């Protein structure tokens, strides 16, 4: 992941509603969620949801699939993995005894 992509992803997640949306979609993997279900679960208006999903999508954190009249959204796990790898690339000077417990907690 390039530095600019990292900044775009972090910027997209640096908002309470977008962070809630992304975390909800992570929990909904691999099925994803219909937009209306996301709005209901987070108690937000459809237009607010749409704007925030567009920002997350532009940052590569969310993808969508049309299902008839509905749109199903999915978290882009690969992008989040790449973001975490970028952030942890030089973790603790390569000392696995420090990094592995943190990574194991994240990946359980």
List keywords for this structure.
108 residues; 3-stranded antiparallel β-sheet; 6 helices; 3 strands; elongated
Strand content: 5-15%
**Which term fits the overall shape?**
elongated
Order of helices and strands: HHEHHEEHH
Structural class: alpha+beta
Report the average pLDDT across residues: 91
Word description of this protein:
- It contains six helices and three strands, in the order ααβααββαα.
- With 108 residues, it is of the alpha+beta class.
- A three-stranded antiparallel beta sheet has the order 1-3-2.
- Strand 2 and strand 3 form a beta hairpin.
- The model has no long low-confidence stretch (mean pLDDT 91).
List the helices and strands and how they pair.
Elements (H helix, E strand, L loop, with lengths): L2 H11 L2 H12 L5 E2 H8 L3 H13 L3 E6 L2 E6 L1 H12 L7 H11 L2
Antiparallel strand pairs: 1-3, 2-3
Helix pairs in contact: 1-4, 1-5, 2-4
Concise overview:
This protein is of the alpha+beta class and 108 residues long. The protein has helices spanning 3-13, 16-27, 35-42, 46-58, 77-88, 96-106; strands at residues 33-34, 62-67, 70-75.
């Amino acid at each position: 992941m390039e530095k600019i992509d990292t900044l775009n992803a972090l910027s997209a997640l640096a908002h309470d509603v977008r962070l809630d949306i992304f975390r909800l979609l992570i929990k909904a993997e691999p099925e994803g969620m219909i937009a209306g279900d996301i709005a209901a679960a987070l108690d937000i208006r459809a237009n607010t949801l749409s704007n925030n999903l567009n920002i997350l999508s532009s940052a590569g954190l969310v993808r969508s699939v049309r299902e008839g009249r509905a749109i199903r959204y999915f978290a882009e796990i690969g992008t989040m993995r790449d973001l975490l790898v970028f952030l942890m690339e030089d973790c603790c000077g390569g000392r696995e005894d420090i990094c592995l417990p943190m990574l194991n907690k994240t990946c359980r």
